[in-house]
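Researcher: Please translate sequence to structure tokens.
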Amino acid sequence: MRYLTIPGIELPLSRIALGTAVFSPDVYTQAAELLDAFIEQGGNCIDTAYAYGRGGSEQTLGRWLAERGNRTEVVLIGKGCHPIGDSGPRVAPEILRSDLATSLERLG
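Model: Translation complete:
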């Protein structure tokens, strides 16, 4: 695995990130197996978002992090302010703060 460094992030970052858009609590076993394989191959950069699976992605990832006890070994890339349903644009500081707080809670 090749790595890069980003100022402000202590860990070297794998150049390949694993996306979690299709993770959900009902496919936890398969998601955990994929995450474990990614880590075994040297990956440590995991992409998630507030809107992925209506929060299911973050819940699944949070469970995996808690069970493996490896939070200090991975770098999470999270995103917020996604439109939800027909809500239209959701880009404002207060929405981003709310999305971030919810994401952190889901991730544990």
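Researcher: Any highlights?
Model: The first helix runs from residue 28 to 40.
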